[in-house]
Amino acid sequence: MIALIINYNRLTLAKQTADWCFAHGLTPIFVDNHSDYTPLLEYYRDCPYQIYRLNENRGHTVISTLDLKKLFGIDGRFIVTDPDLDFTGIPDDFLSVLN
Fold it and tell me: What whole-number percentage of the chain has pLDDT above 90?
């Protein structure tokens, strides 16, 4: 299952979110809202996850203004998240619980 991480100028939390998603069987993809934070852009150069960089900051409207399912070829369920959520305490079987 794909986890789309909507990001703007966050490095540490975004990386932690992507790593957590990957460790829990998700495929993280960054949807970057035209970040300009140099350390983040440097991380993106060697990032092990897919990054889709926008040419403008669409903020939270990126979800409604882009057809994310079509853009990433998603034909089933997917997750959209911010990079600054606390995933502490989420059980390993969270996907089956949400299903």
Answer: 65
State the CATH number of the domain containing residue 64. 3.40.50
- Residues 88, 36, 82: CA angle, nearest 5 degrees: 25
For residues 60 and 33, give the distance between their C-alpha atoms in angstroms, rounded to a whole number.
9
Helix %, strand %, coil % for the chain, to 5? Answer: 35, 20, 40
Which residues are CB-contacts of 70 (< 8 A; sequence separation ≥ 6)?
none
Q: Whole-prediction pTM value?
A: 0.92
Residue 1 Cα distances to 37, 49, 55, 70, 71, angstroms: 29, 14, 26, 15, 15
Report whether 33 contacts 7 (CB < 8 A): yes
Q: Structurally, how many domains does the chain consist of?
A: 1
Q: Which domain holds residue 32?
A: 2-98
